[in-house]
Amino acid sequence: MAGEPVWPDWGEFITQDREHINRLRGLRSPQQQTQTQPTRMGEPDMEITENELREMARTPWRDLNANQQRVVLAHLCGQGHSKARTALRDALNMNPARTAMELWQIQQAAGAEPSTGGHQPDTDDDDDTGAPTTPVRWEPGMLVKELPADLHRARVVISDAQKTATAAREHPGQWVVYSVHTGQHARRVALDKCRRVAGGRVQAFTPAGVFTARAIEVEPGKYVVFARCRTTSNVRSGQ
What would the pLDDT profile of 47-65 be if each residue is shown by its tens digit? Predict the structure, then answer.
């Protein structure tokens, strides 16, 4: 009817106004809802690349915020509580100038329990050369949770007598080369060695009477001493 006012479409007006307000707030329209990543129990809800994780693991602990610290611990030790994770966190809190990667390497060298899952940290650079990028730096005043494994091994020297006696015991009745002698007194030295073997005066050939020895001139002026572990039949016959 002519003269009647035209009322606006209030539903469309409200929808447009709501979308305008959402845009001002930085929100998307209902048709473009974002998909949130599932939140892990006890871990911050954020998307972090592998490179970012490695960079944070090599950043001094005091320079990371609380969320970044939790992410680094999960990256190195896995999710959830574990002795390794607790020990690493305590060591970092006592040494905040150190990086999580450095103290994690110390923890592994000390024989800490294995990770409970999650990422296994990459200790090498992208251009892998087979050697760790950051060797552990032991500095005065640095606190450690446990002592690292001692790689020192006492040097064990096996003498010629031990080698000969072992081979002779493993092959009773068979002659084994003990020593070679040349020079002016070669014969005298070789014969003296034979007496010492037979008399058990060398620790490797004890007790006396178990071994016998012979000195033979294999070349002019060159004597070889042979030793043999007697068998039961040899001992009875006196050979």
Answer: 677 778 888 888 888 888 8
